[in-house]
């Protein structure tokens, strides 16, 4: 590490103008992240024209601040309203929303913010020292390894629905079946599109998220609208307790590196990272039954993982010029337009640019904590809005969010259909996360499976041929069997007692 | 009650059967393995069919048992709830139909306005009208003007 | 038009404000608001082309109307093209060879004859790349091996079959006397993933646009064995062309712009003039350079002729690739 460049970068990052851009980007990102359907990709895309006249470095700072700012914002609506704005924010709703219902919304938002800060900061440090080796590690993931990683994610998420595994499996399979809609890349065969060009690339999982979570949640809440209003739990406090921090400390620091590594893998991204962060902590916890009931570490772990994954995803983008997700692809396009060509040469030819960016990310994370802590008090007010006004508005935001994804009213029908499905899932207590995750990874999982077999000319040995594969297979077996073993042990103990 | 509980697995079963039939009708791939595009949807829908039939039978057998979710399901049919949910969906479809023709602002004014009246009744008309107008124009301003997202 | 009505309505609703854009009747071409359709999501080549045009036209005051870029992704451009077909002449769309291939593959009813061609703006060139330690370090070696056993090398391509990345390789192989329908292609989601797979040794050969390969090439992490241009490229002077290596093929990956059907003579003339000025601006030249595109400007008349020729070529290519009968 060359300290000269570090100092240069720091000096660049703390010019008043660049500080202002970090702040504005972070604020805008937080807001965009909170709205359903509007994610970092849209946020970055709409600001591209604004950056035309700017210094390339300032523009890059601004755009990347929007990107990680949106990760902070994403969990806000998950916690307060059970309506995640993006796939990577789903896991935060598992415990965040129950916490809010218990009157601990303030604590949940605060712990999520601190977890995001730690996740983001650990990842920036990792970025500083490990960008090169990690990029080399990531390219060793071939089709077989990706297939196994996705299988592992699915098995981890199904194992969450321990109460009723059957429901979990059905939910996942339904998602997998839906994920086959659209063009099959390996053969160019169009599957189940019913002649609609809008379906050629499959059903956008963001529409499904908005439909099931936002619309479904609104419909579900209409049930309660006739009942005498429940006694609202008063918001206890805006800051978490010492016990909550002690319980969350380890999960936060464990999830950060996990999320970071998942983030570095192209195509994996924040949704897989946050789910794995959550499931890992639940497996490791001594009191797993508290997960899902509103426990602080259940919010902290996925948020930490998610934020560090978002920084991790910048490694393949900047060091290899390879975008690992839709959002980083938009970023790549924007950077190229600004005349910054990400790639291995960027680190050698423009070290100051990289160091400016790294330093601005440190500063940006600190800004975001301040912004988000200040917003906590304001956001809690959302809960005071009478539900007969709040829910119709969420519904409308869902419609706008869906429209901005592909500018087509066909998505409105899909949105409504999944809203009804979401209502039915909630009524019959079916888990929703396996469906969404299967829909997100299903397509890639199939394609990678098929590519593996093309590479090996049809031999299944390709799935056992690398150390990474073997580790993943062991993890898959463990994640499925551990819950069964644990419950068997518990039953035995119960009988003995 | 039983009907509601069985309808979701029924949807799963129909979906699975639908996809299995559609998979049989897929064209063969002209490149590589001719049935490459078929295996995965076939496997996933067959498994889905199997498990949902199993679940369907289980729900049917347990139909007289009392579950903790039952109260919620009964509430769907109670009071004004069916009208509110039905209204939201029916007018949602109308919204989708008119959106491209009359544009964002008019469609949203109508839809949100109707919704607010269905939910809150006529007595709170002032709040309904105000919420509708303020939300419509604010959201339009934020999305179309500040964020430059084209709304019709 | 619709926007103006909306604006008026909204102003009327809020009340009291004076309406500035109150032209109810059609003013002369160009209208106050022009729409550029990018039939893809933000971040892709089409989106980039549309936004670059927006930038070069507005910043140089060549077009004074407001230009809006509208993303209409789906079906390899189909959604956007369908949209354009039903618009009037204030809407234009960027296009590329997918306009023909979708039609040939039976995915679309539309062809270039359903639109008004306005210009070809720029082109990228195709490249064929191998890993840094590959046994096949020139195009002839790759092709010889494929001739011996077409399935022996795994070829990476993105994001779908029937695009220029895929078809340029098909045509090159065919020029070399290989049956292209026997080749093993691995289809990835994006050009970036193809590069990753090549670096990780998961595929043997990759076909992509030059800009996607050149950064890694300059860092010596992969080897470009040939480019599809007529002459060697300025930024990669040491990379031979296909032609130099016994594969008689020049393959542009062009991007153009077109309007809805039935545009008037004056409207076409308007764009001919403005676009010709645009491609000469410094701003546009910088954009070309940043994206490693080459100038490939053709006016409306030349474009129409070029489109007819291209349609023929693509028809044959798809048949030979085994994608159509």
User: What oligomeric state do these chains adopt?
Assistant: heterotrimer
Q: Give the SSE string of chain A.
A: HHHHHHHHEEHHHHHHHHHHHH
Report strand order across the widest sheet of chain A: 1-2
Strand content of chain A: under 5%
> Mind telling me the C-alpha Rg of chain C?
22 Å
Q: Biggest β-sheet of chain A: count, sense, barrel?
A: 2 strands, antiparallel
Mean pLDDT of chain A, to the nearest integer, reads 84
Structural key phrases:
heterotrimer, B: 152 residues, mainly alpha, 2 domains, 5 helices, flat, C: 325 residues, alpha/beta, D-Maltodextrin-Binding Protein, domain 2, ten-stranded mixed sheet, 10 strands, disordered N terminus
Describe this structure in words.
Chain C: Residues 1-19 form the signal peptide. The complex is a heterotrimer of chains A (497), B (152) and C (325). Chain A is built from 20 helices and 2 strands. Chain A is mainly α and 497 residues long. Chain A has one domain (3-496). A two-stranded antiparallel ribbon of chain A has the order 1-2. Chain A starts with a helix and ends with a helix. The mean pLDDT of chain A is 84. Chain B is 78% helix and 0% strand. Chain B is an all-alpha fold. Chain B folds into 2 domains: 2-76; 81-146, no CATH class. Chain C is an alpha/beta fold and 325 residues long. In chain C, strands 1, 2, 3, 4, 5, 6, 7, 8, 9 and 10 form a 10-stranded mixed β-sheet that branches. Classes of the chains: A mainly alpha (497), B mainly alpha (152), C alpha/beta (325). The B-C interface holds B 30-32, 103-106, 133, 137, 140, 148, 150, 152 and C 2-3, 5-6, 9-10, 13-14, 35, 68, 70, 161, 181, 184-185, 321-323.
Précis, in short:
The complex is a heterotrimer of chains A (497), B (152) and C (325). Chain A is an all-alpha fold.
Write the layout of secondary structure elements.
The complex is a heterotrimer of chains A (497), B (152) and C (325).
Chain A: H1 3-13, H2 16-34, H3 40-47, H4 56-81, H5 90-101, H6 105-138, H7 143-158, H8 165-179, E1 182-184, E2 189-191, H9 205-224, H10 242-264, H11 269-284, H12 296-312, H13 314-320, H14 326-337, H15 344-349, H16 351-380, H17 387-406, H18 410-427, H19 433-455, H20 467-496
Antiparallel strand pairs in A: 1-2
Chain B: H1 2-24, H2 36-61, H3 70-76, H4 81-120, H5 125-146
Chain C: H1 2-14, E1 33-38, H2 45-59, E2 66-71, H3 78-85, E3 91-95, H4 98-104, E4 116-130, H5 139-148, E5 154-157, H6 164-175, E6 184-187, H7 191-199, E7 205-209, H8 210-218, E8 223-227, E9 252-259, H9 265-280, H10 282-291, E10 294-298, H11 300-321
Parallel strand pairs in C: 1-2, 1-3, 5-6, 5-7
Antiparallel strand pairs in C: 3-9, 4-7, 4-8, 4-9, 4-10
Helix pairs in contact in C: 6-11
């Amino acid at each position: 590490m060359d300290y000269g460049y570090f100092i240069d970068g720091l000096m660049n990052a703390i010019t008043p103008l660049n500080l202002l851009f970090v702040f504005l980007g972070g604020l805008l990102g937080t807001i965009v992240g909170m709205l359903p359907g509007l994610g970092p990709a849209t946020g970055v895309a709409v600001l591209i024209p604004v950056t035309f006249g700017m210094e390339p470095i300032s523009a890059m700072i601004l755009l990347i601040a929007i990107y990680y700012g949106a990760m902070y914002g994403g969990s806000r609506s998950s916690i307060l309203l059970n309506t995640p704005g993006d796939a990577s924010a789903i896991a935060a709703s598992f415990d965040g929303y129950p916490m809010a219902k218990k009157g601990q919304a303030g604590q949940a938002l605060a712990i999520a913010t601190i977890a995001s800060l730690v996740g983001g900061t650990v990842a920036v440090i990792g970025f500083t020292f490990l960008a090169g080796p990690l990029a080399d590690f990531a390219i060793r993931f071939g089709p077989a390894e990706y297939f196994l990683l996705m299988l592992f994610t699915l098995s981890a998420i199904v194992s969450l629905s321990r109460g009723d595994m059957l429901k979990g499996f059905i939910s996942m399979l339904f998602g997998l079946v839906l994920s086959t809609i659209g063009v099959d890349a390996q053969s160019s065969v169009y599957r189940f599109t019913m002649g609609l060009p809008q379906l050629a690339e499959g059903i956008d999982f963001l529409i499904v998220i908005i439909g099931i979570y936002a619309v479904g949640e609104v419909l579900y809440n209409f049930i309660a609208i006739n009942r005498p209003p429940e006694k609202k739990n008063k918001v206890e406090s805006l800051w978490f307790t010492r016990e909550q921090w002690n319980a969350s400390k380890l999960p936060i620091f464990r999830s950060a590196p996990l999320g970071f590594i998942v983030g570095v893998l192209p195509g994996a991204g924040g949704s897989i990272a946050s789910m794995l962060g959550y499931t890992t902590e639940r497996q490791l916890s001594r009191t797993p039954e508290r997960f899902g009931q509103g426990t602080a570490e259940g919010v902290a772990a996925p948020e930490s993982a998610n934020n560090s994954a978002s920084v991790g995803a910048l490694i393949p983008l900047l060091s290899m010029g390879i975008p690992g997700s839709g959002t980083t692809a938009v970023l790549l396009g924007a950077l190229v337009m600004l005349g910054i060509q990400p790639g291995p040469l960027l680190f050698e030819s423009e070290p100051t640019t990289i160091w400016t960016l790294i330093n601005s990310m440190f500063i940006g994370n600190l800004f975001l904590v301040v912004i988000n802590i200040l917003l906590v008090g304001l956001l809690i007010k959302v809960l005071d809005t009478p539900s007969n006004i709040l829910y119709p508005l969420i519904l409308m935001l869902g419609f706008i969010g869906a429209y901005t994804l592909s500018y087509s009213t066909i998505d409105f029908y899909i949105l409504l259909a999944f809203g009804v499905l979401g209502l039915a899932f909630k009524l019959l207590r079916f888990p929703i996360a396996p469906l969404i995750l299967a829909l997100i990874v299903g397509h890639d999982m199939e394609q990678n499976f098929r590519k593996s077999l093309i590479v090996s000319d049809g031999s299944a040995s390709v799935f056992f041929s690398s150390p990474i594969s073997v580790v993943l297979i062991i993890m898959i077996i463990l994640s499925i069997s551990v819950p069964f073993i644990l419950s068997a042990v518990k039953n035995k103990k119960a009988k003995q007692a | 009650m039983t009907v509601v509980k069985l309808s979701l697995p029924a949807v799963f079963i129909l979906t699975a059967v639908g996809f299995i039939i559609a998979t049989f009708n897929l064209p063969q791939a002209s490149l590589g393995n001719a049935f490459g595009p078929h295996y995965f949807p076939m496997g996933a829908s067959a498994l889905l069919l199997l498990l949902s039939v199993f679940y369907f039978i289980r729900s049917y057998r347990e139909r007289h048992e009392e579950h903790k979710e039952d109260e919620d399901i009964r509430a769907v049919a109670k009071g004004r709830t069916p009208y509110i949910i039905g209204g939201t969906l029916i007018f949602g479809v109308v919204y989708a139909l008119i959106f491209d023709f009359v544009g964002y602002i008019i469609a949203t004014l109508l839809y949100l306005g109707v919704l607010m009246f269905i939910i809150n009744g006529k007595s709170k008309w002032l709040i309904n009208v105000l919420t509708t107008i303020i939300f419509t124009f604010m959201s339009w301003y934020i999305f179309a003007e500040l964020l430059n997202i084209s709304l019709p | 038009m619709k926007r103006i009505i909306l604006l008026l309505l909204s102003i009327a609703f809020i009340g009291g404000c004076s309406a500035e854009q109150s032209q109810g009747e059609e003013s002369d071409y160009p209208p106050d608001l022009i729409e550029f359709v990018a039939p893809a999501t933000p971040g892709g080549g089409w989106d980039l082309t549309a936004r670059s045009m927006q930038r070069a036209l507005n910043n140089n005051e060549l077009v004074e109307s407001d230009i809006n870029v509208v993303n209409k992704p789906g079906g390899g451009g189909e959604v956007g093209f369908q949209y354009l077909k039903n618009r009037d002449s204030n809407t234009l769309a960027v296009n590329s060879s997918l306009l023909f291939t979708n039609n040939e593959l039976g995915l679309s009813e539309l062809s270039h004859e359903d639109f008004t061609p306005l210009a070809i703006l720029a082109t990228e060139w195709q490249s064929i790349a191998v890993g840094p330690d590959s046994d096949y370090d020139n195009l002839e070696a790759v092709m010889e091996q494929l001739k011996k056993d077409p399935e022996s090398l795994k070829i990476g391509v993105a994001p779908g079959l029937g695009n220029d990345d895929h078809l340029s390789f098909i045509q090159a192989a065919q020029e070399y006397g290989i049956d292209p329908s026997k080749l093993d292609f691995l289809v990835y989601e994006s050009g970036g993933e193809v590069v990753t797979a090549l670096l990780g040794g998961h595929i043997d050969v990759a076909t992509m646009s030059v800009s996607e390969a050149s950064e890694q090439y300059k860092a010596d992490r992969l080897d470009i064995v040939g480019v599809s241009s007529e002459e060697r490229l300025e930024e990669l002077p040491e990379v031979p062309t296909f032609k130099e290596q016994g594969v008689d093929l020049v393959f542009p990956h062009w991007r153009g712009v077109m309007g809805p059907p039935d545009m008037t003579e004056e409207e076409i003339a308007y764009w001919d003039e403005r676009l010709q000025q645009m491609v000469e601006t410094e701003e546009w030249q910088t954009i070309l350079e940043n994206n490693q595109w080459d100038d490939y400007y053709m006016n409306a008349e030349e474009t129409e002729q070029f489109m007819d020729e291209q349609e023929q070529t693509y028809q044959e290519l798809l048949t030979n690739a085994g994608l159509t009968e």
